[in-house]
């Protein structure tokens, strides 16, 4: 039990340090990127470079993910509370969202296409083409 509590505290401390470092970066680099996103970037780079071990933050991250739906309740209440304002400003909100979604879909499609045809995916590509040919013969 004590070890579990220590793991939770350890992982929360790491997560909060990343968040506060993100706040510090956002204060000194005013690009309009939120503090939490800077913190996520730092956490990501720490995990990728293996400065932060995944098992160090696993228990705290799992706990936060488990209760994530509860954390979105205030956002939902705010949407309901300011529904009139959101409807009045719908064109300002919808157009950038639709455009950014389309750009994201196009980018992901192009990257997936590029990765699919790379030599590292050639074996997978051959398997899929064989399956397609097999299905077409059956039909």
From TrEMBL:
InterPro entries: LrgA/CidA. It is a multi-pass membrane protein. It comes from the Bacteria. It holds the Pfam family LrgA. It is found in: Cell membrane. Keywords: Cell membrane, Membrane, Transmembrane, Transmembrane helix. The chain crosses the membrane at residues 12-30, 64-82, 94-117. NCBIfam families: PRK01821.1 (NF002494). This is CidA/LrgA family protein. It comes from Seminibacterium arietis.
